[in-house]
Design brief:
The complex is a heterodimer of chains A (300) and B (337).
Chain A (H helix, E strand, L loop, with lengths): L1 H10 L7 H37 L5 H5 L12 H32 L4 H13 L4 H15 L6 H25 L3 H9 L4 H28 L4 H6 L19 H9 L4 H35 L3
Chain B lengths: L1 H32 E6 L4 H14 L4 E4 L4 H9 L5 E4 L5 H9 L4 E15 L8 E3 H8 L23 E5 L4 H10 L11 E3 L2 H9 L4 E6 H6 L5 E2 L1 E3 L14 H5 L7 E9 L6 H17 L10 H13 L17 H4 L2
Parallel strand pairs in B: 1-2, 1-3, 5-10, 6-7, 6-8
Antiparallel strand pairs in B: 3-11, 4-8, 4-9, 4-11
The chains are: A mainly alpha (300), B alpha/beta (337).
């Protein structure tokens, strides 16, 4: 009797024999968690079905190789696609070294100082700033002050700023997965700090860093708002050949097409959405592949 | 792994150096061959189709068209960032003085007509026409929170909440509607559903029995089965008796008033020294009759295009609209005498 009372007290329940109650609680929570999981998946499936049924038969070689046109059936996304590719490469080239440099400084050189704490909070805050604000910043600094105007470079610099916080945070995560003992072992063998970072820490965390960069880039290629604010054009038939050329990107084409009255244009938009989604899926696939590879390969 | 890093670093350096050295000349060459247009998203489809045909007719020339809105376009025009500004309303006195301050002269060219349709749901059986006075009462800033039911506009209409849909405040459409209906541009109640995307407005009205909205006539035309247009009565028998439904004919003969408006392009006089810009403007006017109908807008009568073409040839700068008290209801053939 005394035992039972103690048990009751420990579990904080009124009466022990209500086993059914726990059973129901368990089942309920199990179902609830399941619904939460499927919520996102169902939304994705609905999006894919909606977009697929509307735009799948619009995708053809012509759609990929034609420039923009006022006639919906003749319109394609060639210049937008090339613009998006340019934008992606340029953004990566700018954001990659800066982001990794900043992460190494914060994680390896200046981990415990007050300054690092302040920087860390600010970078976390930057990650939450709406992308349109980056557009305004880019318009003032890159497009007007640096006179880059409506060029690929101005857009790429703005997008690079936009994804820097994400790259810094994910790179720091990757650097943190390298055990501290590896660094100590390296120092013990007489290596300098630079040698330790360059020959031990970076190679070991590279795939983690790449994963973060690719995920950040796949966010960047879907951005419309900052580029619209920067003044990216909508109708561009000439493929950009240099970083100072005018450009348009796939999300801007989509944005334009969904707002047109002719329903044929909304089918074009659906087709372009499929292409953009494919881009994102492939990039995320590469990120997952790199992550798995790193988990298998590195053994200390 | 080190190889990757080196490659990325090298690529970064290369682009940085390459960019630095060839930067200026690349910019110059692109400015010499491409014509920069920006502005109203209402005028965008017209400029797009003309640009497409112009490029097809002139190999090697390229036209770049953006859509930052009428106001956004003029801001770039003042900064000399573009050669041509698309506008869904005449230039404002303020924008004109900014141009003067920046030393920019421009040629104003009317290119097409657009109407604004006031629409309701097809299930709306009670309303088929509305007067400008009633619209003014409904949309004025004073109506906010007060005029919320259909029977407050006309007694015989139902005692149901009225849901309002309209263009967003950044658009020339909003400016024109408020000037024509409320009497002062940008003066409007705030408690309505705004959207810059007219398809959102179309869907809103088409799915809401008690909705009333306004947007471009060609959006109504493309969605005639799911919308019902109201006839507009401006109570001025001089331009058509009674309430008048929007149609190509009534917009063109200026009886659908005050919600029919001209669309413009503004060409910088300095840019017109470049032959390709002047050719583009001439091509625009010469081919508008042929291509404007494809976009859903209404071309001007040929006599007006002839006048527009003369304005380009003689490089007549400035806007006659600035001398008018209001651009609403202005007849183009009287404005451009």
């Amino acid at each position: 009797m005394g035992e039972k009372k103690k048990l009751k007290k420990r579990l904080r329940v009124g009466a022990l024999p209500k086993a059914k109650y726990f059973e129901w609680q368990d089942i309920f929570f199990h179902r609830f968690a399941m619904v939460c999981t499927f919520f996102g998946v169902v939304a994705l499936v609905l999006l894919l079905v909606g977009v697929g049924s509307n735009g799948l038969d619009r995708i053809s070689w012509d759609f990929l190789s034609n420039g923009p046109s006022a006639r919906p059936l003749r319109a394609g996304i060639f210049t937008a696609l090339i613009g998006t590719l340019w934008m992606m490469v340029l953004t990566a080239v700018i954001a990659f070294p800066i982001g990794i440099g900043a992460a190494i400084y914060l994680e390896e050189y200046n981990k415990k100082s007050k300054l690092a704490g302040i920087l860390e909070i600010n970078i976390a805050n930057l990650a939450g700033v709406p992308s349109i604000i980056y557009g305004l910043l880019g318009l003032q600094i890159f497009a007007r002050t640096l006179m880059l105007g409506n060029s690929l470079l101005a857009g790429a610099l703005t997008l690079a700023l936009l994804i820097l916080p994400v790259i810094i945070v994910s790179t720091r995560e990757a650097l943190r997965t390298v055990p501290y003992t590896i660094r100590e072992a390296s120092y013990a063998l007489g290596a300098s700090k630079w040698q330790t970072i360059w020959f031990q820490v970076l190679p070991a965390s590279m795939s983690g860093i790449f994963t973060g960069v690719i995920l950040a880039l796949s966010r960047a290629i879907g951005e419309t708002a900052p580029l619209v604010v920067l003044g990216a054009a909508t109708f561009v038939t000439a493929v950009p050949t240099g970083i100072f050329d005018n450009y348009t990107v796939v999300p801007i084409q989509i944005y334009n097409w969904v707002s047109r009255p002719d329903p044929e244009f909304s089918r074009n938009a659906a087709a372009a959405i499929i292409i953009l989604l494919m881009f994102t899926f492939v990039m995320n696939g590469i990120a997952i592949y790199l992550r798995n590879k790193s988990q298998k390969k590195i053994k200390w | 792994m080190r190889k990757y890093l080196l490659m990325v670093a090298a690529a970064g350096l290369l682009t940085a150096c390459g960019g630095g050295s060839k930067g200026t000349d690349s910019k110059d060459s692109s400015a010499a061959s491409s014509i920069q247009v920006d502005g109203s998203s209402t005028v965008f489809p017209i400029t797009e189709i003309i640009a497409e045909e112009f490029e097809a007719a002139n190999q090697g020339l390229s036209v770049v068209v953006g859509e930052s809105g009428t106001g956004g376009g003029f801001k770039k025009f003042v900064r000399s960032e573009i050669d041509v500004a698309d506008a869904s309303r005449p230039i404002s006195a303020k924008e004109d003085s900014l141009c003067k301050a920046a030393g920019i002269e421009y040629v104003e060219i009317p290119v097409a007509f657009d109407g604004l349709a006031v629409v309701v749901n097809p299930a709306n059986t009670w309303a088929s026409d509305i007067t400008v006075k009633e619209l003014q009462m409904l949309w004025a800033p004073e109506a906010q929170g007060k005029i919320t039911k259909w029977n407050q506009i006309r007694k015989e209409w139902p005692n149901e909440k009225i849901n309002l849909y309209g263009a967003g405040t950044a658009s020339g459409t909003f400016d024109y509607f408020t000037e024509a209906i409320v009497g002062k541009a940008k003066s409007c109640r705030g408690d309505y559903n705004p959207s810059e995307d007219d398809n959102v407005l179309v869907k809103g009205v088409a799915t809401d029995k008690f909705a009333l909205g306004f947007f471009g006539y060609h959006y109504y035309k493309a969605n005639k089965e799911t919308l019902k247009a109201l006839a507009i009565d401006d109570q001025n028998d001089a331009n058509g008796k009674g309430a008048i439904l929007p149609s190509e004919a009534t917009i063109l003969d200026a009886t659908y008033q005050p919600l029919a408006r001209p669309l413009f392009i503004y060409v910088s006089k300095k840019s017109m020294q470049r032959p390709e810009v002047k050719n583009f403007a001439s091509f625009f006017v010469a081919n508008a009759t042929k291509f404007v109908p494809e976009t859903g807008y209404i071309p001007l009568p040929p006599a007006l295009y002839a006048k527009a073409s003369a304005r380009i040839e003689q490089q007549i700068t400035g806007s006659p609209f600035l001398t008018l008290s209001s651009s609403v209801g202005a007849k183009l053939d009287e404005v451009y005498k």
